[in-house]
Amino acid sequence: MLKNVIIALAFFVLIGFVAVWILSGGPRKVWEGVQANIENATTTRPYALPWQPDNLFPVISEEDLYGGEYPEGYEGFETDNGEEASTFGDPSPQFGKLRLRAYGSSPTAGAAEEYMILDAPSHNTAPVILDGWSLQSAVTGIRVPLPQATETLIAGTVNVLSSVALPPGAEAIVFSGVSPVGGSFRENICSGYLEQFQTFVPALATSCPSPESELPISAEFISTYGGNCLDMARSLPSCELPESLPAELSPACRGFLLSRLTYNGCVNAHRGDIEFQYAAWRLFIGADRELWLNDHDVIRLLDPEGRIVDVYTY
C-alpha cells in the first residue's frame, strides 16, 4: 500500500514539474536554441565537438581568396569611356532563346576571320527574328548590329536582303569583317562551290550534289553529250568547277559541265528541293578591323531594347 502511495506521489510531482516548465516557456526556448544552432551551422561554420580545436573549420572569405581584390570580371568592367558596363544587365524576355556558343579569331587575318557563333536551341517553339539585335563588348563598349541576309545567294548579282529568322536548332556565324561574296547569306547544299575560289573560316560544308548525280543516264543524254561525258562526271570531285577538261569531250558536254558544275548552276537545278537550304547562316558585319579583344573579352548578345539575352566570356 505504501509503495503505491509513493509511486502516485512521484507521478504527481513529475506532472507538476512539466506543467511549470511549459508555463514558463520551456518549449519555446528549446525551439529557439535549435534554430540558432541550425543558423550557425549553415551560415557561419560547421558544428565542432567540445574536444575539437576552434580553427578546425575556418571560414574562407572572398578577400582571402582574391587577396583583397576581386578577379577580373567578378563585379563588372570599365568601358573605354570610363563608364561601368555590367557583365549581366537587364535580362531579356528572350533569355535562353539564343546562345553565344563560341568565339574564333586568326590574329594574322584580322576582321576577316574573327567571328562569334549564335545557336537557337532545338527546344525553341518558333524562329527567332534578329531584327534590331546586336553584339557588344562589356570591356570596350563596342556595340554592332546583326545584319540582314539573303535567303538564297546568287553569285555575281546584287542580292535582296531580308530579316534573319533562326528556326529551332539553327546557327549563325557572325563575322566581324566583310563578306567574300558581297553579303550575308543562308547556307545551302550548293554553298561548297563558293569554297573553291573564296576563303571561309570556318570552311563551308562541301556536301554538294555529286557531278555524277547531275547527269541523267538516258538515251537522250548519251546521244546529246556522249557516253564519255558520263565517265568524265564520275571522275570529278563534288563542289568544284573543272579547271580543265579533256579535248576529246564534245563541245556540248564541255558546255554542260562548265555551266552545271558551278554554284549558280547548282542553285538553279536544286533550289526547289526540300532539303536545299541548311539551318545555318553566315552574317558579316563589314568592319575593317577586329571588334573583340583577342585574349579575353566578355561579349553580350542584346535584344532590340538592349537587354541581355546571353553572355560569352573567354
Q: How would you portray this structure in words?
A:
The chain has a 5-stranded mixed sheet with strand order 3-4-9-11-10, with no helix packed on it. Strands 7-6-12-13 form a 4-stranded antiparallel sheet, with no helix packed on it. Strands 1-2 form a two-stranded antiparallel sheet. A hairpin with a 5-residue loop joins strand 6 and strand 7. Among the domains are: 151 residues, Immunoglobulin-like (Sandwich); 58 residues, no CATH class. It is α+β, with helices and mostly antiparallel strands and 314 residues long. Helix content is 26%, strand content 17%. The longest helix is centred in the first third of the chain and has 22 residues. Helix 5 packs across helix 6.
Brief write-up:
By secondary structure, the chain is an alpha+beta fold.
What's the structural blueprint in terms of helices and strands?
Blueprint: H1 2-23, H2 26-43, H3 62-66, E1 77-78, E2 84-85, E3 99-104, E4 115-119, E5 128-129, E6 134-137, E7 143-145, E8 165-166, E9 171-175, E10 185-188, H4 211-214, H5 219-225, H6 227-235, H7 251-260, H8 263-270, E11 277-284, E12 298-302, E13 308-313
Parallel strand pairs: 9-11
Antiparallel strand pairs: 1-2, 3-4, 4-9, 5-8, 6-7, 6-12, 10-11, 12-13
Helix pairs in contact: 5-6
